[in-house]
Amino acid sequence: MRYQQRTDTTPREFEEKIVQVNRVSKKTKGGNKIGFSVLAVVGDRKGRVGVGLGGAPDVSSAVRKAVSYAKKHLITVPMRGRTILHEVRVKRGAAQVLLKPAPAGTGVIAGGAVRAVVEACGIRDIVSKILGSKNQASNVYATMEALKKFKTKKI
Length: 155
Description:
This protein is an alpha+beta fold and 155 residues long. The protein is built from 3 helices and 8 strands, in the order βββαββββαβα. α2 packs parallel to α3.
């Protein structure tokens, strides 16, 4: 009996993007204990996005934990076509993020941390600026706070 190699052609429900991988170490009596911390962004490109931070002794386990956490803590972002509803400015800790809606065809004008979240969410036209911290993790969390701020009008 011959075995065929299985190729996964089914489309994934979520797109995963690793934003940051940190090597961390702890001093112990027996020496240094090395681990990894991973920040992952998960989104379906249809308005749902989540962020997760996972830590483990190896990178693959840390990625799996981060993605699992992100999938459990998804938020839904209301959109107007391909852009956001209105301008929003959020300060979370030292990180400060400004998100502005943009006309169709503008594209995603955003820095690395904001871009990862916005693209995973499915927003295609946006202008943003990171004003505070250069810390990627802080900027990702500030962007998530900004996306939670959108309100839709109830009729």
